[in-house]
Amino acid sequence: MKLCRSHYFDLEDILASHETMPATFTEEVKGLGFLDPGAVTDNITPKTKLELPFWILQVLLQLPNKPVTVELPKAFNATHRDIFSADACIVDFNKLCKFFYTFGKILARAKLKESPEIKKMLVETFKQRFRYVFDLSQNVETEKLASDKMDRMERELYNESRTAQVRLNQWMSVGIGTIQAASMIVNHRKRKLTVFEL
Amino acid sequence: MCLEEALVRVKKYLMMETDSSIDISRLLRDEDEENISDDEEFTAPIVLNLIENAWLNEKLSAEILPHKSIYVDAMYQQILTMEDNISKLPSDDIRIDIYQLELDRIRYIITSYLRIRLEKIERFTKQILQQEAQRSVDDQYLSFHELQYAKSFQELNEKHLNLVLKKMPANVASLSHSQTLIRPNLEHFVFIRSRVSQDGLFIPDIAGNEEREVKLTENSQFILPYNSVSELVKNNSVQLI
Amino acid sequence: MDPAEIEFLAEKQLISIIPKFNLNHTIHLISGDIGPFRSGIPVRVPIWLAINLKQRQKCNIVVPEWMNVETLEERKENEKQSEFFTKMPNEHYMEVSRMLFETAGDEIQKIDEIRTVLKDIWDLRMSKLKASINKFIKSDTGIAQLDHLTQLEINSVRPLLPDSLNIISSLEKDQDSDGEDNSQSQNRASSSFAQ
Description:
Chain C: One of its GO terms (cellular component) is GINS complex. Chain C: Component of the GINS complex. The complex is a heterotrimer of chains A (198), B (241) and C (195). By secondary structure, chain A is mostly helical. Chain A has helices at 11-16, 54-62, 78-87, 93-96, 100-109, 115-138, 152-174, 183-197; strands spanning 20-25, 49-53, 68-70. The longest helix of chain A is centred in the middle third of the chain and has 24 residues, at 115-138. Mean pLDDT of chain A is 85; it is low at 193-198. In chain B, helix 3 packs across helix 4 (69-88). Chain B is flat and about 70 Å long. The two termini of chain B are 37 Å apart. Chain C has helices at residues 3-10, 47-55, 69-81, 93-104, 111-138, 151-155, 160-172, 184-192, and strands at 14-19, 27-29, 32-34, 43-46, 59-61, 144-145. The mean pLDDT of chain C is 90. Chains A and C meet through helix 2, helix 5, helix 6 and helix 7 of A and helix 1, helix 4, helix 5, helix 7 and helix 8 of C. Strand 4 of chain B pairs antiparallel with strand 6 (144-145) of chain C, so a sheet runs across the interface.
């Protein structure tokens, strides 16, 4: 897993901030009509309700007249928070919110009213589901799962853990031969000569 | 290359008075020298061990650690001497294979060590150069060649990035310093084995709040955040495992 | 880390062999001196060399003392009784035994029994490890002590354990640790729409 801090080019971050939130426009916004499939003009009319990506909303919320109000996305509303605290393991994050933890982190740090609760919920949910991801990754008999109830972060954890387990099992049963030089290196010299001759 | 040349080269490289605890001539021991006692002098086996430990530490930490070029260079000289010795042996001598096996092992460790460091340099170029500039000459983390590599890598990257940025709309045609800075996560969890007994190590709980004191004893092993022990790793009090 | 790399480290250990050849010289390896070799007389060499010589049929390997059924059964009992991890007879017991099974299987008496006991010990320790990992994750402590676990055992829970701890620790934080409030998406947003 990446051992660097979140940064500008972080793909995971970028993808996660594309998760959507319900927004209600309180004022007209010129030029953004294309965001609304039901728009008649080039502008968004007041009282329009749209589901927009977080990164767009973040910019709109910075405007001095704050033309939108936002609600928490479905996966993070009070109902779901209760579901998670009851039994997080049954939730299908693949369907509900693919970037649950990364996006949740963004929301938790966004200084919203519900941010502290979201933070607590994220930690508790992860801890609850850890056992599930752990057990699944140790069980290498079954086929690698193509899709499951995991969100992206859990899935990455699962994949890496499973790969490591497979390698360990292979090593235990068969042993690994000598560490070989990559064939690319062995062939490097040969390739160079060919280029020279041409 | 004869012993004297190698000696001069290593001393020049150090660019400072030879530390009395590292007897360079012993590092470049020839075939025929008798066994030497390994009390304080850094004999070849000790240097090899140090390199292996450095390799492990470098592999398991997110940030780049102080370089060990003194040892790597000395070991490299040792390898060259050994290869020279091998070439002088009759071709059916059983010793050839034995020496060669060991050389392959040592080469693997050294190249892996250097490769890991290069990967970190390529990933965190900007921050590494920034921090290196603030360190004193005695305390550099990058070797001479690594520093040059980092600088030219940075230059190439920036040139390339600017070429692309120029084609963007005006308000995104440049990136600020903080936007291009990529830093390692120093709070990642590591496994350690302690070489010393030490009190007074304070580790926060996972929420970053209450700290508790941990007592290290020789050979005790822990999992804990890297930044709590980064200094101990760098001064060899603990080993990442 | 790859198990092969841990095996690589394990191979440095010394083991006794009985050479089938003579060599009057001391071999000055970079990692230490070995030899001279007298046919029939035991000599200590690193495992990597022992394996190579054995494969070329130039020696026999002396099985380490700890690799016998009685000693290992005792260790297994100790491990069962103990709540924590007991010290293993060798820091790299699995790696060494695996290598010897592979190359010197013919010299190990009761090899199947030994294999079974070792597997039992490994399984026992691994299940202890898994149980304590689950407990550890649920708790809020930021540190755990794991004395007497071998490198291979520790590596078997990589990257899962450290990465999960990294995730939890990151979720718990309110901001990046050096006080940067701006999330990166803020960073992107402000530059994209700067007027």
